[in-house]
Amino acid sequence: MSATSETAAPISVPALNAEEVAAYLRGNPDFLLRFPELLETLELQHASGSAVSLIERQVEILRGRSQRLEDRLGNLLETARDNERRATSVHRLARSLIRAPTLASAILGLQTSMREDFGIDEVFVGIVGPLLKHTNIEGLVKLEMDGPIARSFDNFFRTKLIECGPLVPVQAKLLFPKAVEPPQSAAVVPLEKEKNLGMLVLGSKDPQRFQPRQGRLFLEMTAELVSAAIRAKLA
Asked: Superfamily for 101-234?
């Protein structure tokens, strides 16, 4: 009895798509270590149009990542240096205000510190009501709530919130009548918000120096220092 020979049908293997290949390589990161000969045959297209090996491409990617990390580290270090410089300047301001023997010397110290340490061109300090007895101190003004300055800043005195942004010419003229070049932007900060001691205005000739969305921490700290110094000298 003779056996009938039959041709076996070929077994079809489903093709893998790119996602499946990528998923396999992610799950087997040592794949190319087990098949190092593939490193010599795989080629990638470079941005210049020439083909490069997989190893060259990996080196390029790692180099790019390293550069991005260096840039981030550089930005962090620069931010840290800026914060350190600002903290040192605030410390000098506090020392100047504490050591000032008179209200006039405290205002002068504030103006000097703002100009030399923070690059702020003009400083205005306004005190509300009968608290201020001396009205001949440069940069210090007694505010009347029905006066032109209070009326010009009526929203500020109503909300008692810090305002940063452009300073219109009328307001600049009211606050800094002797300024050769009127400030273009300013930060308007309440002094003792709850007790309504007055207002501190820091003006800059740079229209971009003070922006509505900028941080408020430095302004709040400065206002607290100025308020404490003024209270001590008014007592």
From this structure: GAF domain (3.30.450.40)
